Amino acid sequence: METLIKASKLVGAGLLTIILSNCSTVKVSKAPFGKTSDGTPVELFTLENSNGMKAKITNYGGIVTQLHVPDKDGNLGDVVLGYDKLSSYIKASPYFGCITGRYANRIA
Fold it and tell me: What is the signed CA dihedral for 91, 47, 105, 89, rounded to 10 degrees?
């Protein structure tokens, strides 16, 4: 679990770097997202740039729960599948938006 959290932070830092390089103003906020069965708190990080792009990423496997991007007319739309609650990810486990893999540092 600790390795998974470290990998999630690394991926989040990478995404933040990409967003920072493409815009002048970035807002980052953190909010509670729930707790795992063993009581580990899970947080939801929101990254937002000045162009309107917004990404919501958990530290539970580095899951991208929402990614809002503007279309050609400037209307924002969520382009990833995801749940609004941590319990849905734990219960269903469909690997929606997971960017670190089931076990961090493993391919197979």
Answer: 0
**For residue 72, what is the DSSP state?**
T
Q: What is the pLDDT of residues 16-67, one digit of tens each?
A: 666 666 656 778 999 999 999 999 999 999 999 888 889 999 988 888 899 9
Edge-to-edge, what's the strand order for the sheet holding 26-35? Answer: 26-35, 41-49, 54-58, 64-70, 76-78
Q: Where are the alpha helices (DSSP H) in the chain?
A: 2-21, 86-92
Containing H/E element for 81? Answer: none
- The pTM score is 0.68
